[in-house]
Amino acid sequence: MLQKPKGTFDILPDELYKRNFIYNLIRETLSSFNFKEILTPVFESTELFKRGIGEETDIVSKEMYSFNEDKFTLRPELTAPVIRAYLENSLYNESPVKKLFYISNLFRAERPQKGRYREFWQFGAEIIGSDDILSDAEIILIPDLILKKLGINDFVVKINNIGNTEERTEYVSDLKTYLLKFENELSETSKIRLYKNPLRILDTKIEKEKDILVNAPLIKNYLKAETKEKFEKLLNILQKLNVNFEQDDKLVRGLDYYSQTTFEFQSTKLGSQNAILGGGRYDKLIELLGGKPTPAIGFAMGIERLLIILEENNFTFPKQKNPDIYIITSGEAAKLYSLNITNDLRSNGIITETDLLNRSIKSQMKEADRLKSKFVLILGDNELSSGIVKLKKMDTGNETDVELNKIEKIKELITN
Ligand code: AMP
Fold this sequence. Notes:
It is a single chain. The chain is of the alpha+beta class. Helices cover about 40% and strands about 20% of the residues. It has helices at about 15-30, 45-55, 60, 80-90, 135-150, 165-180, 190-195, 205-215, 225-240, 285-290, 305-310, 330-345, 360-370, 380-385, 405-415; strands spanning about 35, 45, 65, 70-75, 100-105, 120-130, 155-160, 245, 260-265, 275-280, 295-300, 325-330, 350-355, 375-380, 390-395, 400-405. The strands form 3 sheets. An 8-stranded mixed sheet has the order 1-5-6-11-10-9-7-8, with helices on both faces. It has a 5-stranded mixed sheet with strand order 13-12-14-15-16, sandwiched between helices. It is elongated.
């Protein structure tokens, strides 16, 4: 039997129903912030991700699914594609600030484990064109509100400011000088990072390296008055609006284009994969992709991790609907006649099921029961000649006689 590729999953109807419920809540919430939804192609030119994410990141260096002699790549993230679409379609002409969001699948060649897949879903939002601290606040308030609407309260927003380019360059240089003293004690990965992107060593999960970092220089000591003041303002707003946040001096994001505000929502329930979502400011990306210098900030949340948290919280999702009525037929004439009824009921939004296997009345009844249909209606030659049918309510067993040509009456009984 052929099987799906490792790290992928089928989204079966009951699961999709849950996801659609969440997607509706996301769309409703984003719409209340006046964000507009966007979809971009599943694959883009490989160059977009090399430039937009950075060649030495894990994503670009080892997690991309590329094809056609590496010309194209299945999207491993959505920020670069959204910015590409923003520039290519001149969306900046529509308004100086564009607020866009997406719900999309992405692809990364990772080692699959709980909460980590090769094809997975994210929803995210981007505010393009504003460097006002209110846009930072808005971008954090969106997922905060969505999680709270879903009854999730056990999370903390870890937040940091990694400065502008000048501030960070000075910091990274000092960090490197400090870490060079411990080069021999670092892991192989960290040794490479030390030369390529020392900031990422702050992400380490290795205890020994964590100990080394205790006395490392901190980015906050490199921030100039203007950056500090803006960051303080943001923290004040978050505090006023009851966002549960913690400053985290070591929070740097894996992608190179981040600057200033960076944040991560962390769940206390997810174990090693505790990041529910990450985001931050990326004021340099738009220039990097060929646009005019334009500030921007965004976040992306993993849908599967959100689902895991909801399962752990025993969240009650709405259930798929069962049929309102199952029309049991016997004989060719009844079958044909029943089509008028099913058609009429269905066009009125009543969920109507019939037999597609030419089964006996008894097995159709069994099927109606298995499908948990609310009503059944039995239509055979006798009913056709008398013009009277019985409408049976399944939970009580109550039967009501209805005239066959009074479909209105049937609808009324079903919907009341
Ligand atoms: P990133 O795009 O790496 O900043 O990740 C943003 C969010 O996407 C994370 O916080 C996770 O919730 C989710 N995520 C990232 N990688 C994966 C993956 N391989 N499988 C499932 N979810 C993921």
